């Protein structure tokens, strides 16, 4: 309601100004927004709606996981012993630190500290890379052992007498895989924001892309906060 | 604790287009809390609190605490207008409905025996016996208790260690998705 009122007053204002001050119009402020703040808030609502769809998409996997774990607790406990808790904890720490640097990047942009903005984005990118490298070694180990989803499960070693472990690995690979794809996409968009930051696109009046990408990155962290205890720490 | 600093920063930043919240000190504190809670999660997973579900509930409570810290401070929900919080909370509400609905539906049915869609029943190891009749497509629907081709275990109805479904229901009602 409030916003529509400001939007209306803006239209009048805009018409008044159009003749005389149009040259001073900041091209980063789109014409249908009254102020940078309004533009920022609108973009943010859109981002939160996107986050809602993401949460619900992962939610389907989480619900499936909960039902199957309740149905086959012994299989899930036996299967999770094949995951390396230390690597999972390491990746948790790496992601938490990257979330911190992401929010620091937003703060740096909002306070006109371009060098710090670039530094924080680079650290975030490096952390994302470390996460994927660790994930690669975990996947490689599982593929080597035959700890794979569904029909591809061919593990014959210690602990393989417990039935139905393939269900756990179906969830493990789908959940961490979807999360890993989100990390990859995140690296792409962080790289894009980094390029724009180096080019000098952002200052305290306009840093919407930095903020939205950071929001996305926090979501990726948020999902991992649940994945880690669910997959690695079952008892 | 840090709210005083935050307010000070807030007051200073009033001339900016955007209000600046938080700050390096607050964010570092949140990061510290998150790392500490990660250690607590790992530690709690090594202790058996008794009862199968209690450990999971504790792990999820700690995870939710961490998630709240991330959402409130890193994602700035604490300082924003209500709209974004409403969007996020209603998402969680519907996710809860989804979980509860599926869970109550699931516990009101007889358990489904999983299949990994493998045709050859002998491939999955010694536990194959009780499920042999269900997985082998050669076993006819109308022959309860037909000998399992794998020979790995008892195929007599009622003798299955996996209970009523694996034994008694073997010959009569293989679920459609288990037949090929």
Protein architecture, described:
The complex is a heterodimer of chains A (235) and B (180). With 235 residues, chain A is mainly α. Chain A has helices spanning 2-21, 36-71, 73-80, 85-110, 114-145, 165-199, 208-232. Chain A is elongated and about 75 Å long. Chain B has 180 residues and is mainly alpha-helical. Chain B has 6 helices and no strands. Chain B has helices at residues 3-12, 24-46, 52-74, 82-107, 128-135, 164-168. In chain B, helix 2 packs antiparallel against helix 3 (52-74). At the A-B interface, helix 2, helix 4 and helix 7 of A face helix 2, helix 3 and helix 4 of B.
> Gap between N and C termini of chain B, in Å?
64 Å
The secondary-structure element order of chain B is: HHHHHH
The oligomerization state is heterodimer
Counting helices, strands and paired strands, the structural category of chain B is mainly alpha
What's the overall geometry of chain B? flat
Task: Estimate the mean pLDDT confidence of chain B.
Answer: 68
Low-confidence runs of at least 5 consecutive residues of chain A: 1-20
Could you spell the SSE succession of chain A in H and E letters?
A: HHHHHHH
Radius of gyration of chain B: 27 Å
Strand residue content of chain A: under 5%
DSSP summary: helix tally of chain B: 6
Describe how the helices and strands are arranged.
The complex is a heterodimer of chains A (235) and B (180).
Chain A: H1 2-21, H2 36-71, H3 73-80, H4 85-110, H5 114-145, H6 165-199, H7 208-232
Helix pairs in contact in A: 2-6, 2-7, 3-6, 4-5, 4-7, 5-6, 6-7
Chain B: H1 3-12, H2 24-46, H3 52-74, H4 82-107, H5 128-135, H6 164-168
Task: Provide tags for this entry.
heterodimer; A: 235 residues; mainly alpha; 77% helix; B: 180 residues; disordered C terminus
Task: Produce a short descriptive summary.
The complex is a heterodimer of chains A (235) and B (180). Chain A has 235 residues and is mainly alpha-helical. Chain A has helices at 2-21, 36-71, 73-80, 85-110, 114-145, 165-199, 208-232.
